[in-house]
Amino acid sequence: MSGGADLTTPALLLSVALFAIGVVGVFLRRNVITVFMCVELMLNAVNLAFVAFSRWRGTLDGQVLVFFVLTVAAAEAAVGLAIIIAAQRNRDTLDLDAFNLLKW
Amino acid sequence: MTLDVILFYVFGAVAVGSALVVVGQRHPTYSAFALIVTLCSLSAVFGLLGSPFIAVLQVVVYAGAIMVLFLFVLMLLNVKREERRPGGGGAVKAVAVGLGAVLVAQVGSVLAAAARGSGAPGFNASTGHVARLLFSPAYLYVFEATSILILAALVGAVALARKES
């Protein structure tokens, strides 16, 4: 497969748009699980940037990095959801505003 | 415009649209389903960018494993619709969207200037090529560290989620 059409800039802009949507979601939503899904969305946007740069430079290191990001995302989802279950058991809610033990 | 460019824009638009649904939706279950749509269309985008390995991995790991885990937890905790903030929250919403627009403008201008034009000629990201680099000495320690990370996450998830008795 050769370099193909001029998709580098559109792919990078798509990545930025998805990342910004994820950031806005983290600000706006108050359900822990939705916020967590927005973080996954941001990880995906970064993956898209890795793939676009990998294709542009013609090296495969970006693809390998995407593989590692996927692995970390899977581990993060498992641990994060376990923490959410434990927090829900303690506070009986999923509202982020209720988790204020470390606030002063 | 060739077919792959048209498909790129179609799947990119679907990804952005469903990502907006993820953020705008008050019910987490609907957000999860919208996120699955985003991930699958992103997988198509990866395929169009000449990365079949990542495209398949995206569907199998993200849509297949991670999102099922999310839906499982949503089901387990019986999550309700997010209630409206008592004070309206319109100002918070406006500030968040404004900051998002600033982020798009800043990072977008940097990234758009960083790389222009089509891909490098002779780019081949088939599974065999990616695997040869992934299992090369360059990534040996990182790969092994990842397996330890996954094992730690496995044990940690079990330890965190189990009931104290």
Q: Can you walk through the features of this model?
A:
The complex is a heterodimer of chains A (104) and B (165). Chain A has helices at 8-28, 32-57, 61-91. Chain A has 104 residues and is mainly alpha-helical. Chain A is elongated. Chain A starts with 7 loop residues before the first helix and ends in a 13-residue tail after the last helix. With 165 residues, chain B is mainly α. Chain B has two domains: 1-81, NADH-ubiquinone/plastoquinone oxidoreductase chain 6, subunit NuoJ (Four Helix Bundle (Hemerythrin (Met), subunit A)), CATH 1.20.120; 127-165. Helix content of chain B is 75%, strand content 0%. Chain B is built from six helices and no strands. Chain B has helices at 3-24, 28-48, 52-77, 90-114, 127-134, 140-161. In chain B, α1 runs antiparallel to α2 and α2 packs antiparallel against α3 (52-77). The mean pLDDT of chain B is 88. At the A-B interface, α1, α2 and α3 of A face α1, α2, α3, α4 and α5 of B.
Secondary-structure map with pairings?
The complex is a heterodimer of chains A (104) and B (165).
Chain A: H1 8-28, H2 32-57, H3 61-91
Chain B: H1 3-24, H2 28-48, H3 52-77, H4 90-114, H5 127-134, H6 140-161
Helix pairs in contact in B: 1-2, 2-3
Quick synopsis:
The complex is a heterodimer of chains A (104) and B (165). Chain A is built from 3 helices and no strands.
* SSE succession of chain B: HHHHHH
Number of helices of chain A: 3
Radius of gyration of chain B: 20 Å
Helix content of chain A: over 70%
Oligomer: heterodimer
Which CATH first-tier class of the largest domain in chain B would you pick? Answer: Mainly Alpha
Low-confidence runs of chain A (pLDDT<50, min 5 residues)?
none
- Beta-strand residue percentage of chain B: under 5%
Q: For the record, what is the CATH homologous superfamily label of the largest domain in chain B?
A: NADH-ubiquinone/plastoquinone oxidoreductase chain 6, subunit NuoJ
Q: Unreliable stretches of chain B, pLDDT < 50, 5 or more residues?
A: none
* CATH architecture level-2 label of chain A: Orthogonal Bundle
* CATH topology value of chain A: Helix Hairpins
Largest pleated sheet of chain B: none
Helix content of chain B: over 70%
- Termini distance of chain A? 57 Å
